[in-house]
Amino acid sequence: MNKIEILIIDDEPQIRKLLEIALESNEYKVWQAETAKEGIVLAANHPPELILLDIGLPDKNGHEVLKELRSWYNKSIIILSVINNEEDIVKALDNGATDYLTKPFRTAELLARIRSAIRRNQQAINNDTTLIFNELQIDLTARTIKKNNQLLKLTSTEFNLLALFANNEGRVLTHQHILKEIWGVGFQTETQYLRVFVGTLRKKIEDNPNQPKHIITESGIGYRFQ
Amino acid sequence: MNKIEILIIDDEPQIRKLLEIALESNEYKVWQAETAKEGIVLAANHPPELILLDIGLPDKNGHEVLKELRSWYNKSIIILSVINNEEDIVKALDNGATDYLTKPFRTAELLARIRSAIRRNQQAINNDTTLIFNELQIDLTARTIKKNNQLLKLTSTEFNLLALFANNEGRVLTHQHILKEIWGVGFQTETQYLRVFVGTLRKKIEDNPNQPKHIITESGIGYRFQ
DNA sequence: AAATCTTTATAAAATCTTTACACAACATTA
DNA sequence: TAATGTTGTGTAAAGATTTTATAAAGATTT
Q1: Which one, of B114, B102, B100, B110, lies nearest residue B18 by Cα?
Q2: What is the pLDDT of residue A1?
């Protein structure tokens, strides 16, 4: 079983050592960076489950680092700060920090917050982004779809259509409604678009496109996903 | 299992944080908006189960936001207000607010009101769309019908006819009336259509189509659904 | 140039309409 | 009464029409 990985970005060696001991004795795998630059490179090469970020780094303002990380990193970032400055904390939370801790901190509290943040990560993965229908696994935020754990290649429109279907499992969606959602108002009469795209989608996701199990046609009305 | 989603629209970060902690620790998924504009965009892109709306927003009067949301959003909106102003509350309720809370509020009370509002949402969903007659389960918006939890395949006209019957349980509907409702004015004499379609419907929904329990013929007059 | 989207054409499938006929209930007539 | 006709209903199936699926050619975007 793989250990959960945590990246520490802090310039003080004593703090890093303290965190390393606390975390490794709790079965986390620890990565360390001394500077902002080094931390961003490490995170990019090997995205950890959680980042502990010191807001008072020497080479770059911590808020800048946070923003930069948040532009692509969507798991938990816990801020470490020497000062109990509310303004700083609010700013960090607004910039996407998951939580914050003021130094000096108690190890028990640190660990509790880390557990909580990681739990939320994993719930987010399970709940928000991916929908599962038998052999199909649709990740709405990553915009990827797997069939039997095999990644499929869909075009943008195909994915939009599939996402609409998946969000309305079991419900009959009329041609007009689908066209309005995917192509916009004014396209409600272009039912042929729909036929073509349902065709390509079926070819990609159905075992037997002639006898579709997922995208069911409701003649005269629209389609239903199941 | 998906978490229930709640959108907070409030300009005060402390209040948002407080609400976030209270709600997330009670297994809700929280979305946040700092401004009215941002809140409306978020709600439109991803309609939540409930909205917590601060009536005292900086960029737009809360009452205006409420009206705008209510023009298309039909789930619960709970108003948050710093002032215990009866006039304001009455106005908000008139504009479609589900409930209100005055700051500072107790977390326990907030949670209780949220549970209550969400419960009402879900009852509304259940009541509006599906009709149940013994082993038959008819979902009017999804346009699906289940017999003993088994999905049946009906054509469009068959479903329309069944829906008309189901909406008029126990009542005798004349041939003319049914024909006018399903096929339109000018088809009132085509009683043979009706015989054919009642036949196919019975074949699909009745245990024994020769001795129908649901679609009863009233000779010389029409049919009755029970 | 490659990928994607939009149109067009046509074949196939599903659905609806119409016709034919059987059967039952009831009324009429020899 | 028995035979016959009338009317309303149900069922099957042929015919007509509508709707859908698919390929592939153009147009557009990346």
Answers
A1: B110
A2: 58
